[in-house]
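[step 3/7] fold_predict: job queued, chain A
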Amino acid sequence: MDVQFLGGAREIGRSAVLINGSLLLDFGTLSGTPPRFPVETPRPDAVVVGHGHLDHAGNVPALLSGDARPPIHWTPPTYELALTLARDTLKLRGGTYDCPFTENDLKRVTEVSEPHGYGDPFEAAGHEITFYNAGHIPGSAHVLVDDGETRLLYTGDFHTEDQRLVSGTTARPDADVVVCESTYSDVEHEDRSVVEERFAESVRTTLWEGGTVVVPAFAIGRTQEMMLICDAYDIPCYVDGMGKDVTRTLLQYPGFVRDADALRQAKSHARFVTGRNGQRKRITDQKAAIITTSGMLSGGPAMTYIPEIRSNPTNKITMTGYQVPGTPGRDLVETGSAEIDGRVMPVSARVEQYDFSAHADREGLDAFLAAYETTPVLINHGDRCGEFAADLRAAGFDATAPEIGPVYEL
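[step 4/7] structure written:
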């Protein structure tokens, strides 16, 4: 089996792995200004997408330009979420130099889409593919690829611990080689219940003091997780941005979430923002949490809320996810100011960061890989892939950290 990384090796973002020159696993975008894409746009015979986040699925429509029409295989939620992201990308970047696809490319996605459930093998570009629940977000999948000689397990993003939205992965399919993500290979997540308690206490205190809390959150997965937490702790909340549509989409696929009834209840507890008639500015005077995109303050309704609440030190901004270097969210956490809508704004509101990650930490990675001690492991999707691979070798693994570009024979 030949494997070539077109993105996502020794970096977080723009995941793309070409198998035997014919099967493409993921085709994502690396967030930034400007965004970055895989180093080339191949013409595969088939595409398999592991989950619906931008860094794995954000560039998929670009594969359908010209006369290319490879079938795209994914779970039903991943299909829906990828379309939602692509429509948003077109809205934000359509017609600009950094939009990699057109409206026509996006329309073609529906024509070639082939959805599959977990545990049901299917054929793609001459390979047998099987999806397993990866426990990252609804619809996320480990991808097992069998070309008749080699069985490769592409973990995609995964979590071994339960979240409120999805249960952790328990799948450990037999494989001859593993391509493993390593986003948090140097991190030990604090117990999720402890993080939730601290978040809830902080928000309650701010609301009691008369302040407002803006909760920047990724639309897919994190918004719904924060809704579930707010409901569980009886915190009044508004929800704004793409996360509203994503929530409605996920409720159409109850089999891909941990507790569909709990998600329905969380949706009933929250108040969805319409954005009409100055509603957003009025909400900033409410004693409530405002869960809104974007999670890194690079767009979305957060561009309205942050300027409105930034000057009052009673208010609070609670970052809930990883902040890519160079994004306004990262700048805000590190410097106390951020570029919002083209101008740098100092922020007097308190800024806090919470680890609600949907990725396995070092302990989780080690626990997952314990099932593959005698299996070659390729480490990707991390900013310290080489160091993690070296740690694994010291523990007796056959581990390497491939680079973008070369073709590796397995």
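[step 5/7] annotate
The longest strand covers residues 127-133.
The domain at 2-186+359-409 is CATH 3.60.15.10 (Metallo-beta-lactamase; Chain A).
exit 0
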